[in-house]
Amino acid sequence: MNYAELTFNDRNPVKRWLQRKRLASALNLVPADRVPSAICDFGAGSGELCKVLRQRYPDARICCYEPTPALLAQARDNLRDLHNIEFRDDAAALAPGEFDLVFCLEVFEHLPPAQTRAAMRLMRSLLCAFGVAIIGVPVEIGPPALYKGFFRMARRLGEFDAIPMNVMLSLAGMPPRFRPVGEIAPGAHYHFHHMGFDYRMLQRELAAEFRLAKVAAGPFGPLGTVANPEVYFVVGNAA
């Protein structure tokens, strides 16, 4: 799986634009008074966010954490011209309280429940006392499910996320309960389709695990999750 070809280098210009905008939307949620010294891109994929982070925070230590070997290899290749990027694929190599800013974009929609809970616990442990994590996931219910569904059906009608009934259920806010599960690496269970993910459930889990400071949608913030394709959660450990 070439992550960049599915996202930032997709043949559709609108999708390419939206992928860039989701990075910008997440960065815009960093508190204005915060100058991070250590940043982790948690589940970095091909490492595209690390490029932007390196430009915005030239003095910060940046960690590209990607536990999937194939994706980490893509990130290393993508970031080969940048210096001072740390690459890690083992959670055991991440120290508790190591980061004051963590980004986790387009990750949780792919994780089954057990992996979701494990990722939350790990992310919480990585934040320093007053650290902030910014989590971005797709909106796959309501009107966004409809326009995403049309796009998917035009490309690959009949797949799980391109079945008209599944699209209609998601539009109604009742996405399919049973999602196909595969492996992105040996022993690493993974939902390859976004459909069936419900950000409302993730929001409740995040509120139970962290201090939930802010919820925002993008790229057109005022439209909220009714129309936007992405939603972001700003969370922290501090009371």
For the secondary structure, the number of strands is: 9
Q: How far is it from the N-terminal to the C-terminal residue, by CA?
A: 40 Å
Along the chain, the helix and strand elements come as: HHEHEHEEHEHHEEHEHE
- Largest sheet features: 7 strands, mixed
Q: What is the averaged pLDDT score?
A: 94
List the helices and strands and how they pair.
Blueprint: H1 3-6, H2 13-27, E1 38-42, H3 48-56, E2 61-65, H4 69-78, E3 85-88, E4 99-105, H5 113-126, E5 127-138, H6 143-156, H7 164-171, E6 182-185, E7 188-190, H8 199-209, E8 211-218, H9 224-227, E9 230-236
Parallel strand pairs: 1-2, 1-4, 2-3, 4-5
Antiparallel strand pairs: 5-9, 6-7, 8-9
Helix pairs in contact: 6-7
Can you tell me about this structure?
It is a single chain. The protein is α/β, with parallel strands linked by helices and 239 residues long. It has 9 helices and 9 strands. The protein has helices at residues 3-6, 13-27, 48-56, 69-78, 113-126, 143-156, 164-171, 199-209, 224-227, and strands at 38-42, 61-65, 85-88, 99-105, 127-138, 182-185, 188-190, 211-218, 230-236. The strands form 2 sheets. It has a 7-stranded mixed β-sheet, sandwiched between helices. A two-stranded antiparallel sheet has the order 6-7. A hairpin with a 2-residue loop joins strand 6 (182-185) and strand 7. The protein is globular, with a radius of gyration of 17 Å. The termini are far apart. The model has no long low-confidence stretch (mean pLDDT 94).
